[in-house]
Amino acid sequence: MGLKVDTAPGEDHVLVTLGGELDIYTVADFRERLERLDPASAQVVIDISDVTLLDSSGLGALVSLLNQARHGGRGIGIICPQRRLRRVFEITGLRRAFVFGDDLAGVRSGLAAADAG
Length: 117
What we know:
Elements (H helix, E strand, L loop, with lengths): L2 E7 L3 E10 L4 H8 L8 E12 L1 H16 L4 E4 L3 H9 L7 E3 L2 H13 L1
Parallel strand pairs: 2-3, 3-4, 4-5
Antiparallel strand pairs: 1-2
Helix pairs in contact: 1-2
């Protein structure tokens, strides 16, 4: 299975919706699509609700995006209602690096709180 990547600009954020597998075979396409974004100037929220596989190369791409965002004083939000995917972030020690939520409203609220704090 491949990876579907959709981007949609919002009022003050860009929503990137992923579906399928984010792994060594699809990460190059994912990185290429993200080159068009500037996470330092617009808040980026990644929706991984429909991701079926996330490996270390996919995590690496997300961390790279996070590092770019941090240069602009921002974080990255991740919509992830699936406990099994959140567990990947917990095991790797990346759970606290991103702002997680079950939906867009929850992630945006978490990002706003992180910006205020």
